[in-house]
Amino acid sequence: xxxxxxTIDRDFRVxxxxxxxxxxxVEHMGRCVYTGIYEPGHxxxxxxxxxxxxxxxxxxxxxxxxxxxxGNFVSGYNWEDGVGPVDQRPTRIDGAWHxxxxxxxxxxxxxxxxREADVEVMEAINLGTRGVDAAxxxxxxxxxxxxxxxxxxxxxxxxEDPFDIKVWCLGNELDGPWQIGHKTPDEYGRLxxxxxxxxxxxxxxxxxVAVGSSNTGMPTFGAWEHAVLNHAYDEVDYISLHxxxxxxxxxxxxxxxxxxxMDYFIESVISTADAVAAQRKTKKRINLSFDEWNVWYQRGxxxxxxxxxxxxxxxxxxxxxxxxxxxxxxVVVGTFLNSLLRHGxxxxxxxxxxxxxxxxxxRSEEGGPAWRQSIFxxxxxxxQLARGSILRTAVTSDKVDxxxxxxxxxxxxxxxxxxxxxxxxxxxxxxxxxxxxDVSVKLGGFTASGISRAEVLTIPDGxxxxxxxTQDAQPVGLTPLEGVTADGSTLSLQLPALSWAVVVVxxxxx
Length: 510
Ligand code: AHR
Known about the structure:
By secondary structure, the chain is an alpha/beta fold. The chain folds into two domains: 2-9 and 389-509, Immunoglobulin-like (Sandwich), CATH 2.60.40.1180; 18-385, Glycosidases (TIM Barrel). Helix content is 24%, strand content 28%. The protein is built from ten helices and 26 strands. The strands form six sheets. An eight-stranded parallel β-barrel has the order 3-4-7-8-9-10-11-12, surrounded by five helices. A seven-stranded antiparallel beta sheet has the order 2-15-19-20-26-22-23. The chain has a five-stranded mixed beta sheet with strand order 16-1-21-25-24, with no helix packed on it. Strand 24 (485-487) and strand 25 form a beta hairpin. Helix 3 (132-143) packs across helix 4. The longest helix is centred in the middle third of the chain and has 22 residues, at 259-280. The model has no long low-confidence stretch (mean pLDDT 96). The structure holds alpha-L-arabinofuranose. Alpha-L-arabinofuranose is lined by residues 27, 29, 70-72, 172-173, 292, 353-354. Alpha-L-arabinofuranose binds next to loops.
């Protein structure tokens, strides 16, 4: 048995929970849109072709904001192709994913779907093959009330009221050589500045996300953010971060500690952004939009479900990167969400990539069922229960010795205080692969009066750490966490080996 001691205090608040950190991502990639959220003719589809079974799961999972339409896809996309009468929309080649795009689904359909799913739209523009003019036209089309050519076109296409989209991404991963329209930091910084300026001239209320680094291993990481913000600091509100992680060569210990890299990434980008602020002598702060993150098992390019297998014929909605997630992945995803939440004073938008089928918490089959993957659960519970203020957490615990990140705390945690409902929620991961962990929490400034929820995700009976959910059986999920006690200002619990848990304590002020 390992041990961990956690301390919180009512007065040690990081900030309010930014609800947009529970975001997700829908890209025109693989089967995320087609046969994911949208499948006319499916027995569960509504009259617009939206899959009701998928919508139900989306609502249960609780994303707050959804990025659209890409991803790499957006860097070769003409948004005009996806509006107007469906039978007149062009069929195009999507070079990013080697796919045929029919454009049957576009901006209006996504806005309608988002309303149905009760999520905010986060729209990405194409700064790969296009530029300032297409960007400002799209803002006018989407957000201007009417009486101009672009806004009247929206109205003629069936949407009388503006879409009022607030958050816009100025392109996608343009630091990456794989990106259509890849740019140097200065080329991109100037383009983002000018596109952003023109977009805000159309609608000054919008918030803009500049492209940051595609991961911490990019050769330009750090220099990219610095150069881009040097150009576009006054025009933009956020800088983006993307990161995907996976277990390598069975090294589960390092994999379970990868939130360490997420912490490092976030803290480095905050430092860089604030260094630019200091140089500019401005009080304005640039926040972080971690708008792609997840576990992704990136296999060889010759694997059939990998996008760049150019031997394949061009297809519509091919099966691409439909990773099946296991127990270990779910625990790791819980630690990613903890990392984002702990930095919630500066990471104020985050999007798990993606929502359905493509490296996703929700899976669906064409003409068949939809189901929850293991990684669905930490997201769903945290989106539901992380409310109010984020509390600082101090951890003194046994360590896990990892090859990649050195010593890591065996327990990873984040905590929030919902003052209105008188509860403190803890989100905990036990990284120990073999041992239970005895956890005691000192509740500074609070008196506990009961436990209103205690649930755990761990290896199911008869399973292993690699057990996954399939369309036939979903053994990985939440079960009650027994034996949680709260006595005055101490909370005590035991976490099973390799587990993720949520505990909600009823509190009053001490
Ligand atoms: O989410 C899958 C892809 O990963 C996105 O299209 C791209 O932005 C990233 O490289």
